[in-house]
Write a structure and sequence with these properties.
By secondary structure, the protein is an alpha/beta fold. It folds into two domains: about 180 residues, DHBP synthase (Alpha-Beta Complex), CATH 3.90.870.10; about 120 residues, 3-Layer(aba) Sandwich (Rossmann fold). Helix content is about 35%, strand content about 20%. The protein has eleven helices and 16 strands. The strands form two sheets. Strands 1-8-2-3-7-4-6-5-9-10-11 form an eleven-stranded mixed beta sheet, sandwiched between helices. It has a five-stranded parallel beta sheet with strand order 14-13-15-12-16, sandwiched between helices. A hairpin with a 4-residue loop joins strand 2 and strand 3. The model has no long low-confidence stretch (mean pLDDT about 95). The structure holds threonylcarbamoyladenylate (TXA) and magnesium ion. The site of magnesium ion has 3 residues, from loops. Magnesium ion binds next to loops.
Length: about 350
């Protein structure tokens, strides 16, 4: 069973970090908080250590891991041919929730990079993550510390629920700060291509990198630009539907109740008035960062609760809202009612897929 070590998120205790770092150095796996979500780390130079991550998560071997550094000075240990202008920029933007895909050095495990010639790299802005990587003395390959296809973990308890029996240590540093995984980019032409939107927003990317293109998962070439795009993500076991407005939440709830199903609205406190049935709050709605922070734990809690179907509200796709909606859309798939007049059709679809799974 996993060893759980509580750590102060701002001033992590040196002896606990040293213990976890020893486990990393000797080829083990350590889950730790970052400013985005919890990561499951291993020595990025060791094939056997990185294989343990894939085994614990049940991750497809063709989906590469992000390598975490404690400072940009470690970048030459893992990446090649980084243009000076890009390095100068990253010196200002790191630590932070921004992962950059770069040509990889041979020393980085082929298991971690899933056989690709590139590696995604970032310096996380979390004292526990930085202390751990520094003490381990090696860059740390770390995907989100969840079972593959489940929502990313924003608390140590989520990691323990998913991976408790399969990993060596969890550093419990409380809640992750943003609650949504890092923005993943790769240099492209005179700007960047966004492989995964995240807390480092499109506006910030445009400001620093110039031309910013958001990659489509149905890429014309057939191969998705980022392997992670082709896999199911963030999905609860129970159906989750996206409602374009409060009116849609009400109409969905009424229609599902008519069909004998208990639905639960996952929304903000300023949307909750007048809603029938159970509700689960994502925050006040005045602060979109609060919604980001609560999103995955709300989806996890909904999954463990007693309602049959979750109805999650849509958010404006601005700032971090763009990343929030990216995750919500992926969790809902094609189960969307943008307008109340689409509700009946959506409920018919839910009925037929329920019958299919009975
Ligand atoms: O915030 C985060 O990024 C968290 C924390 C722990 O740092 N990590 C995380 O890792 O979300 P993961 O493995 O769950 O997601 C990494 C994403 C995947 O979609 C993967 O396909 C993509 O980054 N990726 C990694 N290396 C890549 C590469 N060389 N080329 C293209 N995409 C890559
Ligand atoms: Mg992940």
């Amino acid at each position: 069973m996993v060893k759980v070590l509580k750590v102060n998120p701002i001033r992590p205790e040196a002896e606990r970090i040293a213990l976890a770092a020893r486990v990393l150095k000797s080829g083990g796996t350590v889950a730790f908080p970052t400013e985005t979500v919890y990561g499951l780390g291993a020595n990025c130079f060791s094939d056997s250590a990185c294989s343990k991550i894939f085994a614990a998560k049940g991750r497809q071997p063709d989906n590469p891991l992000i390598v975490h550094l404690s400072t940009i000075k470690e970048l030459p240990m893992v990446a090649r041919e980084v243009p000076t202008s890009l390095e100068e920029l990253l010196k200002r933007l790191w630590p932070g929730p921004l992962s950059v895909v770069l040509p990889k050095r041979d020393e980085v495990s082929q298991v971690a990079s899933a056989g690709l010639p590139t590696v995604a790299v970032r310096v996380p802005a979390h004292p526990v993550a930085l202390a751990l990587i520094r003490e381990a003395g090696v860059p740390v390959a770390a995907p989100s510390a969840n079972t593959s296809t489940r929502p990313s973990p924003t608390r140590a308890s989520h990691v323990i629920d998913d991976l408790g029996a399969k990993i060596d240590i969890v550093l419990d540093g409380g809640e992750a700060f943003f609650g949504i995984e890092s923005t993943v980019i790769r240099p492209s032409g005179s700007g960047v291509e966004v492989l995964r939107p995240g807390p480092f927003t499109l506006d910030e990317l445009r400001k620093h990198f110039g031309t910013t293109i958001v990659a489509e998962s149905n890429h014309p070439s057939g191969a998705p630009p980022s392997p992670g795009m082709k896999y199911l993500h963030y999905s609860p076991k129970k159906p989750l539907v996206l409602a374009g407005s409060v009116e849609c939440i009400k109409a969905l709830n009424a229609e599902l109740t008519k069909r004998g199903l208990i639905s639960e609205a996952i929304c903000t406190s300023d949307q909750v008035q007048g809603l029938a049935g159970p509700t689960r709050l994502l925050g006040s709605g005045k602060d979109i960062y609060e919604v980001a922070k609560n999103l995955y734990s709300a989806i996890r809690d909904f999954d463990q609760g007693s309602s049959d179907i979750g109805i999650i509200s849509a958010f404006p796709e601005e700032g971090i809202g763009f990343a929030i909606m990216n995750r919500i859309r992926r969790a809902c798939g094609d189960r969307i009612a943008e307008h109340p007049d689409q509700v009946k059709k959506l409920c018919d679809l839910l009925d037929s897929s329920r019958r299919g799974s009975l």
